[in-house]
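Researcher: Let's try something more involved. This one mixes different molecule types, so please make sure each is placed in the same coordinate frame as the others.
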Amino acid sequence: MSAEPDDFDSRAAEYVLGLLSPAETERVRREIERDPALAEAVARWEARLTPLAAALPPEPPPSALWLRIEAGIDAGATVVPLRKRRLESVGFWRAATGAAMALAAGLAIVVLRTPAPAAHYAAAIAPMQGPAATWLAETRADGALVITALAAADHPSGKDLELWALAPGATKPVSLGVLPASGAYVVAAADLPRDHLQLLVSLEPAGGSPTGQPTGPVVYAGALIRAE
Amino acid sequence: MAGMPRCSSSFRLADFRDAPLDIAASRSISLGKIGGRSTVALEAHEDPLNQSTGTAALETLLGRCADGDRAAFRQLYDRSAPQLYAVALRITRQRSLAADAVHDAFLQVWQRAGRFDPARGSAETWLISLARYRALDLVRRHGREITGDEIPDRADDAPDALALLTEQREGTALHRCLERLEIDKRQLIMMAFIDGLTHAELADRLRTPLGTVKSWIRRGLQDLRGCLEA
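Model: All components are placed in one shared frame. Result:
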């Protein structure tokens, strides 16, 4: 049978090209872990085709990206496989108040490696003109603040949404970085008070405010309150 | 040319000092004695950031990342993030999604650096693959949503990429073999790999039936493998 080796190699090649269905892609990824022949066939196709990607002219990434990666590592974030959203209802997401629900449904990109301890403080960050939450913010036992997107945020062309913390009684907010387009965002340190800490999201030039203070309108806001 | 040896047997190192500076800088110069005669060999030398030195160093940096070396991780990021971002941007067409893909790829790099196996491929291939797969996952999940920061599609993108390959030493065999493919097969393979298009998107883009697209790609890949292994 001469068709079989070709089928085997075609499947590896189509996986590398990204042409398999999401379910088949997942299957190949699991098989790679225990089938050295498949892993090798995939590696060979990656080596054959990657010069095409390596030849693209490099493009400087957003300046805040490194800080985000570093914060993720400091917080022990780990990358989980993306799955298709199981619940498409916007109403459900807007009503969702527990990060656990969002995580269980495969919404988050970055989650804790260990099971998340109970949150001490939480906030729903909502548009200034409406009550529906766009992000859920919660503190973790290690002090990190986790911001999970519950719905797509309005995002005008060439602009970024920057997260700020405003402590009670403070006059100047502290930048917590540019929010990613999707998934969860982990803010590592921040020796900020938790109770009634205001979380504001402003519209800024791409890459974030150049001044260290909000330069655009605050479009979303919420405040941390004790959750239990 | 000033400073060129009058004849190879009487050539002395000192003669090189008169050579134009650009030659000294852009070529590696080796002197050897063969059969009692001095010879000089001028070899074309790749630019300082090019692959032969770059790949080795990326692999060293990955090894240090596996030991938890944050400075090495930062160096690895500085060196490779612009390439990974370019690859992700080409697939997602959205800066925010591309940044997410590179973010996730580097978290994976930090966690899995110890699993990188140089016997299976170069560090560059490993890094680009992490970002590419993540960009594909993200764009498939978000379905190239309209968020306002898209980069417009260009129908002639794929041929550009082929032209870029010729500037890369590692790409020459691939370039030669892609050029040998029929144009439709070549275009489909390149658009799938670089632009991250699905079978359905390719069929739509090239106004070709889905079944035809699938079989062209499959045959194109077999032809490509045959040529690369020849």
